[in-house]
Amino acid sequence: MKVNSQLKDKTLYLSLSGELDHHGAGQAMAAIESRIDVNMPRDCVLDMGGVTFMDSSGIAVIIKTLRRTAEIGGKLKVTNVAPQPMKVIDAAGICRLVDISAAE
Questions:
Q1: How many other C-beta atoms lie within 10 A of the C-beta of residue 25?
Q2: CB of 53 within 8 A of CB of 23?
Q3: What residues in the chain have per-residue pLDDT under 50?
Q4: 69-102 burial by CB neighbour count: b if 16+ within 10 A, else e?
Q5: What angle do CA 32, 28, 2 make, to 5 degrees?
Q6: What is the pLDDT of residue 104?
Q7: Alpha carbon 5 to chain centroid distance?
Q8: 34 vs 1, 74, 88, 102, CA distance in Å?
Q9: Using CA atoms, how far apart are residues 5 and 33, in angstroms rounded to an integer?
Q10: pLDDT of residue 12
Q11: Residue-level pLDDT at 103
């Protein structure tokens, strides 16, 4: 799992690529938390366009990112979600908590 980031206008853009499973989720969350702590953004955008597979561990990443962003007074948006991860997100009902948009 790779996490690339860019801070632009106090918004932290985090791009994920690879498999967001148990192993990848731990790596992703460590990288995300580190980048939030360093940049202290107003908002975060989690771009999941490069995620090739996601299981329930990915839900934990989204929730933890949501909580960490909220702790510093920001909002989270999840974008570019492919069909397979979107099925997992829909099944968990995460759309009620986070602004999520599917891949175009």
A1: 22
A2: no
A3: none
A4: beeeebebbbbbbbeebbebbeebebeeebebee
A5: 105
A6: 76
A7: 11
A8: 15, 16, 26, 26
A9: 12
A10: 98
A11: 86
Cβ-based burial of 26 (10 A; exposed 0-12, middle 13-18, buried ≥19): middle
Long-range CB contacts (within 8 A, 24+) of 78-81: 78/45, 78/46, 78/48, 79/45, 79/46, 79/47, 79/48, 79/49, 80/47, 80/48, 80/49, 80/104, 81/48, 81/51
- Indicate the pairing of strand 75-81 with strand 43-54: parallel
pLDDT value at residue 40: 94
Q: How many CB atoms lie within 10 A of CB 34?
A: 12
